[in-house]
Every structure is written in C-alpha cells, then in structure tokens.
Design brief:
Distance between the termini: 99 Å
Number of strands: 3
Oligomer: single chain
Strand content: 15-25%
Radius of gyration: 30 Å
Length: 106
C-alpha cells in the first residue's frame, strides 16, 4: 500500500534534479556534482563557490573533472596625485619658476 508523499519527499519526474541532493553535495567539504547536475545547474553551483574553491564533476560515480573558481582580479590601487603632491615640499622659488615656465609657453 502506497502512502501519500510528504511535501518535502515529493517524487521527482524522470530527468529532473533533486535540489536537496545538489545542495547537500555542495555543502560538503569536498564538493561534488554529477555531469548532469553540473550542466543543468551551472550558475547556482559556480555562484556557491568562493574564489579558489572547486567542485568535482562525476560521471557514473567516478571523477570526470574538476571546476575551480578563479580568484577575483586584484584591483589596482588608485593613484592619489593630490596626496603625493601634498607630501612633497615646494619652496616659493620653485613656485615662481613653475609660473614663469607656464607663462613662457603661452
């Protein structure tokens, strides 16, 4: 005699992924996903990875490949010219030479 399926134990249609199984796999220390899971759920799987983390892609229970999320590129530090100029000391003579050079070019 069959009992009614509980809401969290609904049978899945053939060919669909069990999201609970997928999330359980991704929460393990060693993350794994089948080839079918990986291809159908590429976005959620890769978004769940931190830079440098990996997922082993399995086929028939054997490791077929490994996907490693690349680290985010380091942002270059902005050059603050105002701060650099403020750190250097200029004399009044230097200022007069700069003004004279600018006026000479005009």
């Amino acid at each position: 005699m069959k009992t009614a399926a509980q809401p969290h134990e609904r049978p899945h249609a053939r060919g669909t992924l069990d999201r609970r199984k997928l999330s359980d796999n991704l929460s393990d220390m060693k993350k794994t996903a089948s080839v079918a899971e990986f291809t159908k759920q590429f976005g959620p799987i890769t978004n769940a990875l931190a830079p440098g983390e990996s997922v082993e892609v399995t086929s028939y229970g054997k490791v077929h490949g490994r996907y490693v999320r690349e680290g985010l590129p380091q942002r270059r530090q902005r050059l603050d010219l105002g701060e650099r100029l403020a750190q250097q000391e200029y004399s009044e003579v230097d200022g007069q030479r700069l003004i004279a050079a600018i006026l000479a070019e005009s």
